[in-house]
Amino acid sequence: PVAAGSGIPQIKCFLNGVKIPNVVRFQTLVTKVVGVIASVSGGLAVGKEGPMIHSGSVLAAGISQGRSISLNINTRFFEHFRNDREKRDFVCAGAAAGVSAAFGAPVGGVLFSLEEAASFWNQALTWRIFFCSILSSYTLNFFMGIYHHHPGDLAYPGLINFGKFDGSYEGFELPIFLLMAVIGGLLGAAFNAINYRITVFRLTYLKARYFKVLEVVFVAAVSATIAFVLMYWNSECKPLGQDPNVKLQFFCNDGEYNTMAVLFFTPPEESVKMTVLNGLFIPSLLIGAAWGRVVGNCVNLLWPADEWAQDLSKYALIGAAAQLGGTVRMTISLTVILIEATGNITYSLPLMAVLLLAKWVGDYFNHGIYDMHIHLNKVPILPWEPPALSTNIQAREVMGSPVVTLRTVPLVSDICSVLSDPRNCHSGYPVTDTDGKFR
């Protein structure tokens, strides 16, 4: 069960100091790899970037410890790293490596770990994670070149390819982009609200295993049926481009492809948090790019003679950023990821403004999707800031009296007495010396 979903909430909790059973075990990695292949190839509206982040974290945790409980392997390698602090740092680097491999964004991977995952950070950890991210992207690049029969050609930095993006924008388009950010924040909040209610329904009524299997089969069948009907009903054929490896011909003639056929591979709010391996980034980007292109078409209809209104790709990019930002509520790391993935730094200002505004609008209604699922799973994660009402509360106002302590060298009878007392259920006790002073 711990392998279900994207894995990002679980890794976030693990790095926060919460012990989640089996979250970085080898059997979880195997389940993750096999499951995401089956989910994506089965036609579900899911992505693979979340499972890649989880998989990178599991690999980092296993390699750093030099042993595996699942495989019953215990070597003498890396014994120095067998403590919680070092393991946490390696898991943080593994998460960054997963982002780097998915999007070809090494800097974005570092910022993702800093902004979204890690609860502890230091200067030395920055360059270590950065080196890990660069190496991850280079390794994927090398093997992707071999896969595409171009060994040595390092032109495949990430699994997700945004293509060549050379467009620019005018300064007076910024209000349009900000309006799209508001739309993205509203749609992201609506997406999270729908997903929250569906998840509550699952947790309440779909507890049996066969119900979970039937749900996946039902969603896959309905998604494929709707996509096939739409392709057949609205078959728009266009000439093939220069890439012969991407063919979605369906009902079109030779040399043409069906633009509606993308639906065959793509309802994501239902797929997220199903008992399958899935990611949220790609479905959200596709949703945002779709309605962003609609906005671009509207702009083109209003100003058909202006050259700046002819480029629809920039509106698709801004829409994708607004939708994803309104859903996951990430800002800095997501900006850098999109800049690195598109290779166009020109859009750094509008992307940052759009992501910030989409986050503010979405936060007005509910939490981000990852924090929402952490709450649903009832994981006691420690937030960055304490609740507002606790600012002026002193320790003596919440602690019990007399204070229950343990000596530096306690008697077994004292330990048993403390632990057997039903009033002492917090499982945390100050350690004092023989004089009662805190050490």
CATH architecture assignment name of the largest domain? Orthogonal Bundle
* Helix-strand string: HHHEEHHHHHEEHHHHHHEHE
Q: Which percent range fits the helix content?
A: 55-70%
Backbone structural class: mainly alpha
**Average pLDDT across residues?**
82
* Strand-residue proportion: under 5%
* Coarse shape: globular
Number of helices: 15
Write the layout of secondary structure elements.
Blueprint: H1 8-15, H2 26-41, H3 49-65, E1 67-68, E2 73-74, H4 84-103, H5 106-117, H6 123-147, H7 174-205, H8 209-233, E3 237-239, E4 256-258, H9 268-271, H10 281-302, H11 313-328, H12 332-342, H13 348-365, H14 369-376, E5 406-407, H15 412-420, E6 431-432
Parallel strand pairs: 5-6
Antiparallel strand pairs: 1-2, 3-4
What would you note in describing this structure?
- The protein has 439 residues and is mainly α.
- It has 3 domains: 8-147, no CATH class; 171-376, Clc chloride channel, CATH 1.10.3080.10; 392-432, no CATH class.
- The protein is 55% helix and 3% strand.
- The strands form 3 sheets. It has a two-stranded antiparallel sheet with strand order 1-2. It has a two-stranded antiparallel sheet with strand order 3-4. A two-stranded parallel ribbon has the order 5-6.
- Strand 1 and strand 2 form a beta hairpin.
- Helix 5 (106-117) packs across helix 6 (123-147), helix 7 packs across helix 11 and helix 7 packs across helix 13.
